[in-house]
C-alpha cells in the first residue's frame, strides 16, 4: 500500500481525490489532513503539524494541495517550504505548484497555457513555471465554472504542448479524458497533479489508469527530472 498524504485547505472538495484513488486500484490511498485558511494565508505551523500527523498515519509522502498558495510563494520559497515540511515530518514533501513543474516535463511538454478564473492566480502560476524552466505561452481567464472540455477548447493555443488547469478547489478528474480528446494534447489539473506528485515522491512509478489522462498513461521507469538541474 502506498499512501499519499495531502494538506488540503478547508472547503476544497474531496471527491476528485477519491475518484483518483479508486481508478488507481486498491493499493494506493489518498489521506488528507484538512486545515483552516486558504491559499497563501495558510499558517506554516499548521502545515507542519499536519505533515507530522500524516506521517504518523502512515503516509509515504506529503503534498500541500493548494495551487494558489504554493504558486504564490514563488519557485525558491516553494522549494524551501517543501524542504522544511520534509525535515519536520521525516517523509518527502512537495506542493501542487512544484508538482506542475515536474508533471509538465513528464508528459513531454515545454510550452503550456495556464487556464483558470482568477487573474492573480494565473499570473502567479506563470511566474512560478517560468522560474522552473517552463514556457507559458498563454494565460486564459474564464468567467464562472465551464465544463473542462469547453474550458480547454477556449484556452488552447497552437503553440502550447499541454494545457494546465491548476485550481485544486474545482473538481475536474471525471472530465479529463474528454478534455484531452477535445484539444489533442495533455490536460493537467490541480487534483491530478497533486496526487501524481505524491506518488512520484513515494517512488511509486507503476501507478497508471487510462481514465486519468496523459499524466497517468502506462510508461516505463524513467529518471526523475528536477527543474534547474
Overview of the molecule:
- The two termini are 31 Å apart.
- The chain has nine helices and eight strands.
- Helix 2 (44-56) crosses helix 4 and helix 5 packs across helix 9.
- The protein has helices spanning 15-23, 44-56, 67-72, 75-89, 96-106, 119-131, 148-155, 176-183, 190-201; strands at residues 2-9, 28-35, 61-64, 93-95, 111-116, 135-141, 162-165, 187-189.
- The strands form two sheets. A four-stranded parallel β-sheet has the order 2-1-3-4. A four-stranded parallel β-sheet has the order 6-5-7-8, with helices on both faces.
- With 229 residues, it is an alpha/beta fold.
- Mean pLDDT is 89; it is low at 221-229.
- It folds into two domains: 2-96 and 192-216, Rossmann fold (3-Layer(aba) Sandwich), CATH 3.40.50.12500; 99-189, Rossmann fold, CATH 3.40.50.12500.
Radius of gyration: 16 Å
Strand content: 15-25%
The major beta sheet can be summarized as: 4 strands, parallel
Are there runs of 5+ residues with pLDDT below 50, and where?
221-229
CATH hierarchy, class of the largest domain: Alpha Beta
- CATH topology of the largest domain: the name is Rossmann fold
Return the average pLDDT rounded to an integer. 89
Number of helices: 9
Name the CATH architecture of the largest domain. 3-Layer(aba) Sandwich
Envelope shape: globular
**Multimeric organization:** single chain
In which range does the helix fraction lie?
40-55%
**Main β-sheet, spatial strand arrangement:** 2-1-3-4
Number of domains: 2
Briefly note the structural class of the backbone: alpha/beta
Order of helices and strands: EHEHEHHEHEHEHEHEH
In total, the number of strands is 8
Termini, distance in Å?
31 Å
Amino acid at each position: 500500500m502506498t499512501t499519499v498524504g495531502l494538506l488540503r485547505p478547508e472547503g476544497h472538495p474531496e471527491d476528485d481525490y477519491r475518484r483518483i484513488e479508486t481508478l488507481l486500484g486498491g493499493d494506493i490511498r489518498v489521506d488528507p489532513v484538512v486545515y483552516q485558511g486558504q491559499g497563501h494565508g495558510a499558517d506554516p505551523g499548521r502545515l507542519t503539524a499536519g505533515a507530522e500527523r500524516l506521517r504518523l498515519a502512515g503516509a509515504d509522502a506529503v503534498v500541500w494541495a493548494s495551487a494558489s498558495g504554493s504558486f504564490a510563494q514563488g519557485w525558491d520559497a516553494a522549494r524551501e517550504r517543501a524542504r522544511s515540511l520534509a525535515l519536520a515530518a521525516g517523509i518527502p514533501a512537495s506542493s501542487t505548484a512544484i508538482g506542475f513543474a515536474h508533471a509538465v516535463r513528464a508528459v513531454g511538454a515545454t510550452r503550456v497555457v495556464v487556464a483558470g478564473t482568477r487573474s492573480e492566480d494565473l499570473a502567479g502560476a506563470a511566474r512560478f513555471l517560468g522560474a522552473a524552466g517552463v514556457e507559458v505561452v498563454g494565460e486564459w481567464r474564464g468567467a464562472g465554472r465551464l465544463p473542462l472540455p469547453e474550458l480547454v477548447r477556449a484556452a488552447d493555443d497552437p503553440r502550447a504542448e499541454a494545457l494546465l488547469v491548476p485550481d485544486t478547489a474545482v473538481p475536474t478528474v471525471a472530465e479529463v479524458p474528454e478534455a484531452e480528446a477535445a484539444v489533442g494534447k495533455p490536460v493537467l489539473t490541480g487534483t491530478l497533479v497533486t496526487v501524481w506528485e505524491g506518488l512520484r515522491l513515494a517512488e511509486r512509478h507503476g501507478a497508471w489508469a487510462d481514465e486519468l489522462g496523459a499524466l497517468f498513461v502506462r510508461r516505463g521507469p524513467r529518471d526523475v527530472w528536477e527543474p534547474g538541474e
